[in-house]
Amino acid sequence: MKIKLSMLGLLVVLFIVGCGETPYYGKVDNTPYATKECLKELASGAEIDHKNKIDKIVVYKKKRVLYAYKDGKVVETFRISLGANGGADAGNKVKAGDYRTPEGTYSIVRKKCDARLYRSLMISYPSEADKARARKRGLNPGGYITIHGQPKWNADGRGDEYTLSRDWTEGCMAVPNFAMDKLWAAVEKGVEIEIHA
C-alpha cells in the first residue's frame, strides 16, 4: 500500500510540473535551473557550438525517441516522454488541455531558460492547419509546446529511468537534462522538427 501511495504522489508531482509556462517565484536559485546566466548566454549567442549544430529533429511518438540530424545523418538519439494522455496511442493534439503531443512538421521558434523544467526549445505549434482543424470543431488548439528537460527534483538525472518510462507532460517532449544540454548547444532558431505518430 505504501508503494502505491508513493508512486501516486510522484505522479502528482510530475503532473504539477507539466510543461506550461509558469514564472519562478523563488528567492535565490543557484542550481542549473537559475535563469540569469542562461539568459546572458542566450543574449550573446554563446550557447551555440557552431561545429556541432544540427539541422533537423525527428520524433517518433510510438518509439518514444528523438533523433537529431546533421547533413542528413543521425548524430544523436534520445529517449523522450510525451503528453500524459496516452502519448502516441491517444493520437494527435486536438485542443488545449488534452495532454497530447502534436504531430506534424514545425520549427524551433525560440529557446527558453526555465526555472522549473531546466531549459526548453519552443516549437511552432499550432500551425495554420492545426488552428483551422481546431476552429472547425470550435476548439482552442492550445500552444506552448516545447522540448524540455527534467523537473528540478530530477536535476541530477537519478530519476531518468522513472520519468522516461512514462508519459507525464502537458503535451511537450521531455528529455534527460544531459540531452537538453546537447540540444541547447546544437539547435538554432528555425531548425525543423517533424513529429510522427
Automatic annotation (TrEMBL):
The active site is at residues 148, 172. The keyword Cell wall biogenesis/degradation applies. InterPro entries: LD_TPept_cat_dom, Transpep_catalytic_dom. It comes from the Bacteria. The keyword Transferase applies. Keywords: Cell shape, Cell wall biogenesis/degradation, Peptidoglycan synthesis, Transferase. Pathway: Cell wall biogenesis; peptidoglycan biosynthesis. Residues 55-196 form the L,D-TPase catalytic domain. Belongs to the YkuD family. This is L,D-transpeptidase family protein.
